[in-house]
Fold these 3 entries.
Entry 1:
Amino acid sequence: MEESEHSKTNKKCIPQTRSFRAPPPLLSQVQNFTTKPILQKPLFNHCNGSNNTPPLATSSENKASNLTITTAPAALDQQSSLPPRRKKEGRRVAIALPQTLVVARRPDSGGVEGPVISLLANHFLVKFDPSQRIFQYDVEISPRPSKDVARLLKQKLVEDNLNLLSGARPAYDGRKNLYSPVEFQANKLEFYIGLPISTGKPSGENANVKEKNKLFRINIKLVSNLDGKALTKYLSKEGDDWVPIPQDYLHALDVVLRESSTEKCIPVGRSLYSSSMGGTTDIGGGAIGLRGFFQSLRPTQQGLALNLDFSVTAFHESIGVIPYLQKRMESLSDLSQRKTRGLTEEEKKEVEKDLRNIRIFVCHRETVQRYRVFGLTKDTTENLWFPDRDGKILRVVNYFKDQYNYDIQFRNLPCLQISRSKPCYLPMELCVVCEGQKFLGKLSDDQTAKLLKMSCQRPRERKAIIDEVMTGPVGPTSGNQAKEFDLQVSTEMTRLSGRILQPPKLKLGDGGHVRDLTPTRRDRHWNLMDSHVFEGTRIGRWALISFGGTADQKTNIPKFIIQLTQRCEQLGIFLNKNTVISPQFEPMHVLNNVTILESKLKSIHRAASNNLQLLICVMEKKHRGYGDLKRIAETSVGVVSQCCLYSNLAKLSSQFLANLALKINAKVGGCTVALFNSLPSQMPQIFGLDEPVIFMGADVTHPHPLDDSSPSIAAVVGSVNWPAANKYVSRMRSQTHRQEIINDLAAMAGEILEDFRCRLSELPKRIIFFRDGVSETQFYKVLEEELQAIKLACSRFPNYKPPITFAVVQKRHHTRLFPNDTIPSTRNQSSDENVPPGTVVDTVITHPKEFDFYLCSHWGVKGTSRPTHYHVLWDENRFTSDEFQKLVYNLCYTFVRCTKPVSLVPPAYYAHLAAYRGRLYLERFDSTNSNRNSTTISRAAPPKAAPLPNLSENVKNLMFYC
């Protein structure tokens, strides 16, 4: 039930719950600030005994008032308040005084450790003429059209009015912005454009089905005259002057490079999809998979670059509404044979949820009109009446017979309601789902697997697809826009050099002795065949409960218990061979009822004298009640649990048993591995044995895209042992729907610091904070508010001001690295293999001046590896590039659930798992409860976030989320 590292990583290839938090193409961390100080109040003085320490801010305005924005050069050399490094004091670093806020600059020219590897990156250099003017026009269209109609209007306007537009073919973003390489004849222009759109109304309005031109008024007004000089200055490596990213100019170039592709493809966020890239794939459930590509402009050390990557996502299948529903809902599969059947109340709710906001068109008459489904009628089609223009009451079924000579077949189904207020009804059987609509519903495991298969290309194949897009008929170079705006786009991937960091020596156990091991395999995996975990636990009191399963499957339970205890013993973990009570066997439907499930779990706990260390749950299959089980066990009962499936008990492989044992050991307080050479011994200039350090991670998970009310979940974790730094405690909170900034960070961080002090009898001397899940457009806001929250947490301890390093961790980006097989140094590596673990890149494709790098810390078994992007926004600990890269890579070997380096630095990984666990606590499943938290309700504002249940004291400080 718990996901493996590999499956988790690959699932992220497919945009799902969080897929459209993707940033716009022009990414700035400090994008809207001038070099003049604009906020006057200094950051509050921590722990000085004064009364002016502010409370935790509750709004961005309050928080901003406590910060001063300053230019980078003014702050670079002011170091008086920072703790001294142990050595290497001679270089310049981008650190500001605590009362200023400046994004960290790269401390050096990049790292030097590790052998060099020649690579290719899917970045394509874009050369522009800084003196080339781009004229930005504001576009107002009345009545307001859809994006598709707006683009049709723009095309017709250009074709009919080339003279007034000075012969230019401008680029249009589909909303308000039109960009031209030359100035139009006048600064203000007004046009009236007609498009053939049906004025016919469905039943509920008297129909006039003739096509005629619908007239649109288009006002165009010059608003800006842009050039590329500011962008050239921003990209320049020379000089220390801080300049903001020229967002307007970059957005203009991005629109220009997307213009041709947008006309030929289906745009979704930053990606474009087309059936010409390999057709469509039926993934079941009324959805199809479509191939496409992501593109985005990025400022890099080599200049402006176009990042282009292969992409796959799910769309609604364009079929009749009734066949669509039959594919979506198994219970409706008999509709075609039983045309007289109606819908149960439960089915009606599901149908309404599946169809809400989907665009449809009708097939009983010729029209280009498209409608959006708002809901279903309360009555069936048989019983629906509506008034015509003369006030005469007409029956829907009679209207379609008289007007179109069509007999409604499915009379006991409701009609689609396509207006929020007016009675506008369409019989389902006459409606077809429009093509080109992204599937926002939650994908099933089977659908996800099929999409993963579509998107899972080995490096050679993925590189070939990307190269083909760049030169192909739908790619960014397929039109004439680049030439019109004097842009030169390279069609060759960027060549660059990376480095391969060496793996750390690891510390394992061996019968009470310490054993060292260096992962020398190419994939950097290691095994525990002749070793123990570094710290094994003793589990004397545990129980097992089974849900479902055949009689034959249940006979495997005794064998499973024996082999699991034996495998644990081999790994240095003591698991009692006898459960405190005999295994409990329950039917699967117990997971459907929260009350019964809670009663069963509490009964087991009482039978164990309320002193149960572990509960193993074996399930016949995956079930939505899994979340209820975890919540009840961890909040109400007070026991950690480990779930597994009966299908895995049939073979009982050594690997399965070992994975289970590692998870169990971590959950009850043990650890798998530690670094043999402690961090203080590896980096004595930063870390000291007598100066403990805390590694913290934070993440926020948001509800499903179709859920417009559920709260977001924030989680913060922190290491509480030093120098091993491989055991973490967590805190979770719910917060406002889709809010990315962590509301209660100060409180959560404060609690974790207190836990650290309780365990080590002192507070950490340094804080290294990893923030996951932040897009680049949010960098500055997150730094501004969350750095203050961490400092506020520290201020609650007298005279406590530790130096803080704040780094953002990104997995949802589109930079890919490929071995450059044309270079002799890589001839030993197949071009169809991924880059080796430890591959780091901090030049050419990284930020022109700021402190970021790409690290591929794991071995990509399937598909193409996605390196993790680390961007240090704040660094009072004054790391060099080599130091921070080595620290992150070494930590990736300490993840408790597996014997390999993982793709994400563990503090961020654990925060992600903890936030996901908090989400499970809220997404309750109970078949006896009609409110399943799945129905979307339109609201003016999200409701107040429901608080998470409190964790049991028995569980609170364990890594229960692993």
Note: The first helix runs from residue 5 to 11.
Entry 2:
Amino acid sequence: MAVSMRDLDPAFQGAGQKAGIEIWRIEKLSPVPVPKSSHGKFYTGDSYIILKTSASKSGALRHDIHYWLGEDTSQDEAGAAAIKTVELDAALGGRAVQYREVQGHETEKFLSYFKPCIIPLKGGIASGFKHVEEEEYKTCLYVCQGKHVVHVKEVPFARSSLNHDDIFILDTKSKIFQFNGSNSSIQERAKALEVVQYIKDTYHDGKCEVAAIEDGKLMADAETGEFWVFFGGFAPLPRKTARDEAKSIDIVATRLYRVYKGQAEPVEIESLTRELLDTNSFYIVDCGIEVFVWMGRNTSLDERKTASGAADELLLGLDRPKCHVVRVIEGFETVMFRSKFDSWPQSTNVAVTEDGRGKVAALLKRQGLNVRGLMKAAPPKEEPQPYIDCTGDLQVWRVNGQQKTLLQASDQSKFYSGDCYIFQYSYPGEHKEEHLIGTWFGRRSVEEDRVSAISQAGKMIELLKFSATQARIYEGYEPLQFFVIFQSFLVFKGGLSEGYKKHLVEKELADDTYKDDGIALFRVQGTGPDNMQSIQVEPVASSLNSSYCYILHSGSSVFTWTGNLTTSEDQELVERQLDLIKPDMQSKLQKEGAESEQFWEILGGKSEYPSEKIGRDAESDPHLFSCTFSKGELKVTEIYNFNQDDLMTEDIFILDCHSDIYIWVGQQVEYKNKMQALAIAEKFLEYDFLMEKLSHQAPIYIVMEGSEPPFFTRHFSWDSTKSTMHGNSFQRKLTLVKNGGPPPMDKPKRRTPVSYGGRSAAPEKSQRSRSVSFSPDRVRVRGRSPAFNALAATFENPNARNLSTPPPMVRKLYPKSVAPDSAKLAPRSEAIAALTASFDKALPVKEVIIPRSVKGSPEAPKLSTEAPKSSPQGNSKENSVNNVTEEAPKLKPETIQEDVKEGETEDEEGLPIYPYDRLKTTAEDPVTEIDVTKRETYLSSEEFREKFGMSKEAFYKLPKWKRNKLKMALQLF
């Protein structure tokens, strides 16, 4: 479509350059900008054009254009608004979706821009109405309809306006009454209260009383009696009342019209397909309540102006002037439009370019205007964030039929592709301990094990009274939260479960389960030491990829292969993973293009391999849907411009982020519906309502109200106090409206965690990572102290390679749940003796109150001066995990003490001690080089008792939230 400056109204120059809303009012048949202070204020005698600009995660700008027609606007103004909308679309590059909005029948998308509602005012510019300022406060009666957005209409102030089906708001000078029809739903009543709050703030400066009146309540209630006095006294309403919009639009068969010379001509069709639409023409698709105008890419601006009026004339002839009219451009059709067709190709041959937008931008730039918003924006570069506290406790079970086996700590990050696993991760939340219970399905796992895993995980969640978040994860589709919980994650081929072995026998397949002495190739991937994976792939050359590093072992030979597109960080991950896969063997470095003959021989010879990085689908802009699920059928309604208040406690909602699917379940949802949450998610993936090619194996999270994890709440402006309120959604909202906010909660603030990604006071990556360097001869340079060498010698084979420095230590307030490995306990006393003898000055090795959790090689020992004991009470989280899972013996947390600096004293725990004034977070001369998450452990016993009023032993017997509260009070947090 050719565009010239004469086609562009000066009022539209520079429009749509940044996210937000812009509004123009039609004055003398021309658009005039409306100031932001008047946005949301519409007059019944006027017509308006509204532009909504949205910025996607990729940085691209999207536009939706609406033209709103007041019920008293003139025909000329309405026609001008329709034509100017086409011009505005041309100014934006000819790709915006255009909507016609008729007062009282607006689309939910339009109303969502002006939450909670719009209340049109009497008056207008060209219509001759005057905007009268009332001296006396006028009592008004409004009717409210809608569950997700509210249609508000002023009705005559009379008893005859009331009915049993709707909600009514009576606005008087000193009080606002909400009358709830007996047939109205809780959700509709709650949404209407948002309108009450709007009226209270807008017309009463937030200073007036609010009363809720229930339909059928008699005069015994004082506020009910006060309400009926305005209507001349109480009298029952008639059982059935006629509504203004009682005449509904009949369901009609979809019809297709071709617009020729401004007239709509019917097209006889057997079925509606994409092939019927010609790029040089215009078409009208009549679907009853919605009418679509399709504009070919090769049509001119003048032709589009003419075609836009054809739909209005068609609707007038069919006596349906209040239908929604949506105009779409070829190549940018909406999901709703495409869904009306029996077949729609995934991609068309239409060349969609930046030409139209670029030409407009060039024209505007010559006039000195900022055109940055019209050009394609570069996608923002953001480091992915897991949004979860990584200092919690992890337990993992392998599923074997109807049973599950708890894995030892050294094996809980080693999964097999033929098996299914259940994991439980408990971490400190904002006000309480949070739990994430998930299932992981290997690519080759059998259906029997998958069903069993879901069933057993469901029982664990039931025992936690549905307070845990549930996750379903497939191999190859793991989210970032999963990897940072496990930190070092390995996936082996084959499986260990009986179901998998039985499957191999039935299908007469060879068992290729991983063996230490066999041939195995691992692809190493990840973003850092807290998020790294080794995935076993087929040991053939075609499995290689220039964007990754690999580990190959065959018998006594170990190779590491680095692709030409890898970075030094990728190569460091290989070193760390090598310590887990083959810790006792020296490897040979193979650079892409300079491989040895032995390397290719093991892989069966050279062959072609890719270079593109493998990745999951990127997260897209989230969409929220309310849903109903009955008899296997799922019905969803999209909620536009959503916020936390849209989540009703009686309902189930779906948050679609494309790469992840969240099912939010309200507290007051019936039990049988709660149990359907996973089925709802699977149905949603199957239907793919937004036609975004959702994977059926995308991660699914079942989120319970009141226990929302931070990786869910980040999509909202979240107030946790709202989800902890009691009552249904109407009762909660009434409390907020009457009290001006949620009741205060006497809860301790969340501590600052040591977490991944730098979201809090976590140490820099360089501080948490091991230092590994490389030499040309592939001999890793080690930086180990004599003490560590003495210790390592106890556990190493003297003929083996020289091990790297210890794996990264993530300081955690809570130890990971551990199952003892008896085979590794025997040499402990000998190792301790070798270690202590190597120090210049022997120091007592004693247990630290808050242990450090060591994440890394399964061979890494934990040292103690005492023999390991099983704790009948479990871990320090007050045995919360053991209430829902089988008992597992735990190792007593132990650690190796650091050298004490000269001149410092040491308390009985083996740590240096400092004065209280230097340990405070507000200290003028704070102590450095300490573990800031446990400042209190550096106090002497005497000063500890003086400040806390108890001994250290008594302090650590307190619940965690009480300990945190005391630390905050003393500024030790």
Note: Residues 824 and 861 are 8 Å apart (CA to CA).
Entry 3:
Amino acid sequence: MGSQGGWGQSKEFLDLVKSIGEARSKAEEERIVLHEIETLKRRIADPDVPKRKMKEYIIRLVYVEMLGHDASFGYIHAVKMTHDDSLLLKRTGYLAVTLFLNEDHDLIILIVNTIQKDLKSDNYLVVCAALSAVCKLINEETIPAVLPQVVELLGHPKEAVRKKAIMALHRFYQKAPGSVTHLVSNFRKKLCDNDPGVMGATLCPLFDLITTDVNSYKDLVVSFVSILKQVAERRLPKSYDYHQMPAPFIQIRLLKILALLGAGDKQSSEHMYTVLGDIFRKCESSSNIGNAILYECISCVSSIYPNSKLLDAAAEVTSKFLKSDSHNLKYMGIDALGRLIKINPDIAEEHQLAVIDCLEDPDDTLKRKTFELLYKMTKSTNVEVIVDRMIDYMISISDNHYKTEIAFRCVELAEQFAPSNQWFIQTMNKVFEHAGDLVNPKVAHNLMRLIAEGFGEEDETADSQLRSSAVESYLKIVGEPKLPSLFLQVICWVLGEYGTADGKYSASYISGKLCDVAEAHSNDDTVKAYAITAIMKIYAFEIAEGRKVELLPECQSLIDELSASHSTDLQQRAYELQALLGLESCAVECVMPSDASCEDIEVDKNLSFLNGFVHKSLEKGARPYIPENERSGMVAMSTFRNHGETESSSHALRFEAYELPKPAVPANLPVLLTSSADPDSVQEPIQPKVFHQSSLVPSSLDSLPGDTGLKLRLDGVQKKWGRPTYSSPVPSSSASNTHRTANGATEPSGSDTVGFQARDTPYDSRKQQVEVSAEKQRLAASLFGGAPSRNERSRSSSTHKASKGTTPNSEKPRPPASTQHAVEQSAPQPPLDLLDLRELTTTATSTPSVDPFQQLEGLLESPLVSSSDIPVATVAPKTNDLMGLLDAPSVGLNTGILNSSLANLHSTSVQSEPPAATNKISHHGGNSVVAKKGPNLQDSLEKDAVARQVGVTPSGRNPNLFKDLLG
């Protein structure tokens, strides 16, 4: 291995570390590491490696793993090293294992036993190593295995063990809070530990617990204040000082906890005032750690119940931060000022020039933090300066994420504090022009709504001026290139609604501008749709006023182009415009009323206007509406339609991929059985069904014509045993449930979301004279001007409420109460199918489920019609081997001339025939004769039960199987 180097490692290991550090490229580093991996694989596999060498190999594996390469071939050797008796090797093994494995690794189960043994060790260093591994490797499932031992270590005589036990319990709480909820009292006790390290470690779990439930720890306020006072008065040992600051990290954690406990609580906050004032006076601001404590103290003062003296002290410290030359301290000062102005907005006025300096600082992070501060302190007197600054900054940055945020803030401030209509329109134009497709589509919808509804005042003159200024500004910029699509949609809508409202511009001029927009953006269907609709509004308003409309040639060419468009939406709009031009003025006024966007839309969620139609339809025999919640819980059994056709249950299991085609046959043909085209084919046994004769079927089945014998029509009748070969020709209940009445109303959105490009033309903004102090003072006076009066603030906020309205979500209306009552009274009750032995799905009004076998046994003992009273087909010779049926292929039934008369026969037999008809039809040589009664049906039921216990599914070629089971 070569001569020994420093730290007891070989020269080869030191050369490896040196070569990795001197690697000049990633490829060279990977070459060195891959060569090291091959060397370690070869040497670790040697069974006679000394422990000292194995320790070095494990450390070299740690280097390989940290550099991003796979060292999994050596994981098991690190696990084995944790079992070693040597303290040095054990700690090396634990270190490697915590770096190699995660809590879900397969090798964790091998570590748990070792950890349990080491937690009971007499050597506290071994216990500390095991506790360190517990925090990293124990998962939620293995917490109960080590939790009792960790709790026991809270009373260990060594403070290092107690501290690590607290850390382990905190980790358990983070992974599974329910596992340590009963140990909260232990955290409270350890808060009074003699060792400051243990007390400081206890603050971390207590902070998480207080964040979750503040009220449960109000009683600890006095204790926390007492601890903070002792720390601030330097009563802790000198070993806890950091840069001449007494236990600064314990102070920061205590200030965070006090900020939570004192929020909105005057009584608790009064206990904190004295110690917070002492920290402001005694804390040194010459070091970074001292400034960190002061910043945390300002955060605590701004969170608890306010105190004027503490706020003054906090403002003084904030002023020092803002006047510092360090960007980090300026950042802290801007953030602290943002917290303080929430309590007292006048504090910001004292730091006007400092904020202006931060706003013009080249540090982008500091500039963003300053804009956040200005956003919080915006009011009607400084909104123009702040929004203009934010727009200038938005133009200069290239970060789309932050540009989107700045655009949203500019729009929000403009809507809340706009001093005039013209300024608001110009500001929105700048935001749309320079933010492009980054603007939220809701902003465009809110802008159109604001222009339509005005500022919420009753002064129509002000609203008209707003619309006129919007039209004038849009006509000036509509011809500029590279306007965003969303902005063009707003322009087209405003020009269509209010382009000719004030009489300054003619319909021909406005329609010509709109045609130019549609022509310039021929690839944007949404813009063309807005343009053609705006042209339709312009001409509609002209026709409604009785003026003669002269269609411009470019408008006619646009209509012709859109009429042949591939977009059906554009075609529809073009045809509507052509039809509108041919209507009378009175009709046009009804179709396209002026300023209809401000009309209130009343939505009848219950659709009460359909009640009369519903009652008439129910009187004529229409099926009542079944609510969706009742449909989903209906009983899973076959139901009958009004015309007598059977319907398969939508909840039944399906064993075939597709349904077989069924020919359309008249419903009045007799039930016949024809010979198969293949003479060797064997008919599949037919599922017996209990039914009675009716007037629709001949009373004597001997008179029915047939070639070889009679056969039942079983289309739509679900087979209870075996595979179904036919399905119902009518739609299933699940399909019928999908046809629902569209009884909801949805309001159209303000605009469509379409991708578009941002404008490349830079915004011409004025430059700030940074060096001139007088200019700074004027800017500061604009930003931090006198606060408006209360009446002015209330008026400005109330007049802009309409712009922030949102369209309520449309709710799905419930059917009228009368319809629901009709559904409950007239819902048809399907007849019970005795052979349907599936589990019934109960609804909210159904009776408790009853065992169908008990019902069947009760019926079989009564003198009802036997299941043998049905026609059966000619069958093959009987076989006694039931299990042999599983190997036989199934043969489908012949559907040559079968019809659907069984549905009518089955639905009417229960009402028309008395239970005295007990004849059985057998077949001999194709002639049907009346035979005697079959064997006892009770025996058949027992045979059926035996067959079910055996597990035989009668789907083979034995046509006598049902005869054998049911007699």
Note: The two ends are 92 Å apart (CA to CA).
